[in-house]
Design brief:
This protein has helices at 2-12, 16-20, 22-43, 66-77, 93-106, 121-132, 166-187, 222-245, 270-276, 281-289, 292-297, 301-304, 306-313, 342-428, and strands at residues 57-61, 81-86, 111-115, 142-145, 195-200, 257-263, 324-327, 330-332. It is of the alpha/beta class. The chain has a domain at 57-264 and 299-360: 3-Layer(aba) Sandwich (Rossmann fold), CATH 3.40.50.720. Strand 5, helix 8 and strand 6 form a beta-alpha-beta unit.
């Protein structure tokens, strides 16, 4: 049958229906080809590096949604031991169900959660000091910082209790504080261990205001705040790599911890959706109606995670110096010279250190005041309870004595009545 169709096509050419509609058919084929190629291009490259991760211990922030969730899934499937640093406590029903589901999907029971709120310095210190306060030092192969926040366009500026802008706090200062405390744990890993700190970034840093310029309340905007936090994280990451490199290991070996930056690209994540919809229901409705456009133009979270997986698994990155930027599973250069500016990095580090120290002192003072107040309240309550117990005991004693008195009176009354009855009987006789 196929041979007859081919012979008929060779002898007679295209059928009339095709010849009469040749132009629409050609346009349709070209359009479909363009859309398919566009989708393949916007989807990005898949991770070409592959290796098992059994025994690797990974600390991962932002591992419950978006790109972080896909990263957690892929790492767990390869056998990594995951410690998810989450804002919610490990007893949260959603988190418990999420981890159980992840364990079942990956057949990997080495997945745990620890509460670390990147908007709270005390929460970060409490976890990090517990992690490093261990002898011998705990194994740590990878730290992946996927957690981030943003304010949608038109949104109001938010601050923490200490007056720190939310985007700057979560996207930069929280990560700065976490890595600073974990630094000893990273430096003491055995020389044969390939330790990596993976910092996802965003191309938005290219349009960020310079870190030399202060971002005040007057010139603040959601876009500037987000871009500036990403630029600061890039600058700090380069400085942190130098901080690690100058450390002299007791065994005389070279530093085996490397900072790797990753630009995963634009993806259909909750954060991106929140930005595109401006955090409104009307925006969400338009997003859903025109979903075909973000589907074509934006990556899926799974494809966006491919560059992070490449940074985690590529063997060459474990042998080269740190500070590399990975995009589409290949090394690229930073688009801002400020990223490697040592003066900017030094000023950023010193100011961040001073701010964190100031805030932590204020937090410690407030906690001490609250503790003293709670203790005083507890003592007062205890004294009140003791007084109430004493009064109750005294009342019980009074009631007991009164009961005895009443019993005695009742007994005497009964004796009198009995004596009176006896007297009446005697008289009657």
């Amino acid at each position: 049958m196929a041979i007859l169709l081919i012979l008929n096509f060779v002898g007679n050419g295209f059928p009339p229906i095709i010849r009469n509609n040749a132009r629409p058919i050609i346009y349709t084929i070209l359009s479909l080809t363009f859309l398919i190629l566009l989708k393949l291009w916007t989807s990005g490259r898949s991770n070409p590096a592959e290796r098992p991760l059994h025994g690797k211990v990974v600390l991962l922030t932002g591992g419950t949604s978006g790109i972080g969730a896909q990263t957690a899934l892929q790492l767990a499937q390869r056998g990594a031991q995951l410690v998810l640093l989450t804002q919610s406590p490990d007893s949260d029903p959603f988190l418990v169900e999420y981890i159980q589901d992840l364990r079942e999907r990956t057949n990997n029971n080495l997945i745990y959660a620890e509460q670390v709120n990147l908007a709270d310095f005390h929460s970060i210190r409490k976890f990090a000091t517990k992690w490093i306060d261990n002898a011998p030092p705990r194994r740590l192969d990878m730290v992946i910082l996927c957690a981030a926040t943003l304010t949608p366009p038109g949104g109001k500026r938010k601050e923490s209790e200490e007056g720190i802008e939310e985007t700057w706090m979560v996207n930069f200062l929280g990560n700065f504080h976490l890595l600073a405390i974990l630094s000893p744990a990273l430096r003491v890993q055995p020389i044969d261990r390939d330790v990596r700190i993976i910092i996802p970034t965003c191309s938005a840093y290219i349009g960020s205001p310079s870190l030399k310029q202060e971002l005040t309340k007057q010139n603040w905007s959601p876009g500037k705040a987000y871009a500036r936090s990403k630029l600061a994280m890039n600058v700090f990451g380069q400085a942190f790599q130098k901080h690690l490199d100058v450390y002299k290991r007791p065994d005389g070996g070279i530093m085996n911890t490397r900072v790797i930056f990753v630009d995963p690209g634009l993806a259909r994540t909750p954060s991106t959706r929140r930005w595109l919809t401006r955090g409104s229901l009307w925006g969400l409705g338009l997003y859903l109606v025109g979903y075909i456009f973000p589907w074509f133009l934006l990556k899926s979270p799974s494809m966006a995670a491919q560059s992070i997986l490449y940074a985690a698994m590529d063997g060459n990155l474990g042998r080269l110096p740190g500070g590399k930027l990975i995009k589409e599973c290949m090394e690229v250069d930073f688009a801002r010279g400020e990223v490697k500016d040592e003066e900017v990095a030094k000023k950023l580090w010193e100011e961040s250190d001073a701010l964190i120290e100031k805030v932590e002192k204020a937090q410690a003072k407030r906690r001490a005041t609250e503790k003293a107040r709670d203790e005083a309240k507890a003592q007062q309550q205890k004294a009140q309870e003791a007084l109430a117990a004493k009064k109750k005991k005294e009342q019980e004693q009074k009631d007991e004595v009164q009961g005895l008195v009443d019993a005695i009176k009742k007994g005497k009354e009964q004796e009198k009545q009995k004596a009176a009855k006896t007297k009446k009987k005697t008289k009657a006789k």
